[in-house]
Specification:
Blueprint (H helix, E strand, L loop, with lengths): L2 H13 L4 H4 L15 E9 L12 E7 L4 E7 L7 E8 L28 E2 L6 E7 L15 E7 L4 E6 L8 H19 L4
Length: 198
Amino acid sequence: MDVRKLSAAAVVAALAFVPAGALAAKPKPKAKKPSPRAKVYRAKLRPVGADALYTNVRFGRAQLVDGKKNNKVTIHVRHLTPGGTYLWHVHQATGPGDPCADPSIAGPPYAGWDWTKVDPFTANAAGNYNKTFKTRTFPISIAAGDTGFVYYVNVHFADGTVFACGKFKGSRKATPKFKKQQARKRRAAQRRRHGPRH
């Protein structure tokens, strides 16, 4: 028998014992997802104050990641004056509601970050600004000043006038105080369903 034919027959026989799935192309690696222990909150930067009267442009977006050990906020701001000087901060509301729409519940810059490391900032030649800012001290404790209400981010002119603001969706869940409030609501709902105990 021809040796070449024998070799080809041996290869065919060997492949017969290989599972079909093993011959398929290897799947592409999946993109890494945030750790299940991390909480991710997102905000859209919309015009507020005088700017809101004549424009509905979206000034950008921000993302807040509350990790087990490390935390970070990433901000992307658009439609700025090229070379202009601005400031930005993460804040926390002092009461229920939307602090971007209700200045009476607006709070000071959140103490979890050292804002002198990013402020003031200068918009690039395209009028954009991108930054990721990390900290290990978020959220701060209630004793240190965390109010238990929603977090938000805003962008200021150099004189402090806020022109863009975004509420971090769902971010009240990041605070211990909010968790306690939710636990009390669940217990009250259970009592209503099952009635008073005798």
